[in-house]
Design a protein that fits this description.
The protein is 60% helix and 5% strand. The protein has a two-stranded parallel sheet. It is mostly helical. Helix 2 packs across helix 3.
């Protein structure tokens, strides 16, 4: 099954069943690697990771975040890097920003570095 990039982004977010099974097979090894990193951190710092935040395009998919939470055994949520900003925008644009916020991590960080 081949998707154009815009179709692939939509499929990643809406996660139709045929995409979900493929995504799950890819997320399990990623989740195991992340879990190993968390275990290493916990052991080195003698302090447990209590929450994981995701950003980027895949973080817009609740199914991906949930699948990784199952693998990581730690509460996971999508990070909104714009949550601390005062946005003086019309309501429809605020909603648009919130829907793409996980993808704005680098842009917000770059903007903050200018101050």
């Amino acid at each position: 099954m081949l998707f154009r990039s815009d179709e692939a982004e939509g499929a990643k977010i809406t996660m139709p069943p045929e995409v979900e099974s493929v995504a799950q097979s890819l997320l399990s090894p990623l989740g195991r690697e992340l879990r190993a990193s968390i275990d290493f951190h916990d052991h080195q710092r003698d302090r447990a990771v209590s929450q994981v935040f995701f950003s980027g395009g895949a973080a817009r998919s609740p199914q991906i975040v949930q699948a990784l939470q199952v693998e990581l055994m730690v509460p996971c949520q999508t990070w909104n890097p714009t949550s601390f900003l005062n946005l003086n925008l019309p309501p429809q644009l605020v909603g648009e920003i919130e829907s793409v916020a996980p993808q704005l991590t680098v842009a917000v960080g770059a903007g903050m570095s200018a101050f």
